Amino acid sequence: MEEIPYTCRQTLKTPAPISCLAKGSSDHFFAGSDDGSVRVYNQETLKVVKAIRGLGEVSSVACMSHYTGGFGDMWVASNRHALHFAMDTEKMILAKTDATLTLKLCVDDDDVLNELSLNQRNSQLAFCLDSGTVGVVDLSTKQITRMKTSHDNICATVKFIPDRPSELVSSGYDSRLLHHDFHQRTVLSRFDLGRTSPLSESSGVSMSPPFILSSAMSPSGILAVGTADGRVWVGTGGEKMSGVSSGTSVKKKRRKWEGLKQDEAFTADVGHGPIVALTFIGPRTLFTSTLMGKVTLHEIGRPTADGKLDISSKWTKATADVNKVNAIIAPEGLIIIGGLSESGGGMIEVWEESKSGDV
After folding, report:
1. What is the pLDDT of residue 201?
2. Residue 303 CA to chain centroid, in angstroms?
């Protein structure tokens, strides 16, 4: 294991548990809470500079960054609705009535929104529900498209696939990964993690099935998901290929995204306990966090001569004040971890990358 290059800079307390985190534009990050609030923090001062209150439980925040700086716009998932807020307003504290658009994305009243994701152009908003439904909102027309194939249980995550304008991948508590063409509403490929569970390979007893709790997509098209039984599944089949052509390095786009292809994927045991959050900080560099706060930096290796794929852990560090983790993000030079304190309130830990020369 390498020396840990991060130290805890500060902890931030909130009245209610932190349910989600999101990187904003410029030097801000967003934290959603169970009490229906969203706080906007300045990354330098770690002070709250703007907030939204009174939304109902917040499960996800997706930021539409502006290249001109400022706070940008954002979408918030709250119960059955996705709400759009323009954050570059003079108001310091916004309310539900300040939403510029509210979309009801759940058909049934007992259904709940889980994750929202924006595509690269901020023109499409993907969503997933407790009922297992996956859908996309065209933000120019506000048309809602629901996929023909749903998950058999809670759909926990949904991610757009880089450089694939009509494709996304969803995952859920049914242990399945579904690769959708959302224009055609069809499934292009699928993979069932339950079929590769250690339970099927040994007589051991696992306390948790391989429910998929979290996912992350690298800019190059590698997919990673975290499971309730402490594993990470990594699919490299959709990675944009680096090659050499006539002495020149080139990036080659595959004809199809094959990120769920079994012979270019692997599963690794990375933690004792559910992998509740993960995020890429490079094409093959990945942070994972367990529910109880074991944060690990991993490097996804290149295939060996015999074609074997693997992941290596570089370092591990435990949270000090976040007792149960719900979310992790990694803005440049920082790791931000959000969840519950020991007393059941909200807690955020901000870890800072050590400067060269620091002891």
Report:
1. 43
2. 25
Dihedral sign of CA atoms 139, 144, 147, 151 in order: positive
What is the dihedral angle through the alpha carbons of 128, 117, 261, 174, rounded to the nearest 10 degrees?
A: -20
Q: What is the pLDDT of residues 78-110, one digit of tens each?
A: 999 999 999 988 999 999 999 999 999 999 999
The C-alpha atoms of residue 342 and residue 356 are separated, in whole angstroms, by 34
Residue 273 buriedness (CB in 10 A; 0-12 / 13-18 / 19+): middle
Instruction: Give, as one character, the DSSP assignment of residue 219.
Output: T
% of the chain surpassing 90 pLDDT: 79
Using the structure block, give the residue that is written with the tokens 């435990």. Answer: 318
354: number of Cβ within 10 Å: 14
Query: In a 3-state reduction of DSSP, which class is residue 25?
Result: coil
HSE-up of 88 (CA within 13 Å, CB side)? 13
Residues 6 or more apart in contact with residue 31 via CB below 8 angstroms: 14, 18, 20, 21, 38, 39, 41, 338, 346, 348
Distance (Å) of CA 94 to CA 43, 248, 271 = 20, 52, 39
Tokens of 347: 């807690």
Paired strand residues for 340? 324, 346
What tokens does 218 get? Answer: 């690298």
Burial 106-124 (b: 16+ CB within 10 A, else e): beeeebbbbbbbbbeebeb
Q: Contact, 141 vs 120, CB < 8 A?
A: no
Higher pLDDT, 319 or 255: 319
Provide the pairing of β-strand 265-269 with 186-192. unpaired
What's at 57, amino acid-wise?
Answer: E
Report the pLDDT value the prediction gives residue 137, as an integer from 0 to 100: 98
Residue 295's nearest CA partner among 311, 282, 279, 310 is 279
pTM to 2 decimal places: 0.92
- What span, in angstroms and rounded, lies between the C-alpha atoms of 206 and 199? 7
Token pair 């807690």: residue: 347
* Integer Cα distance of 49 and 57 in angstroms: 21
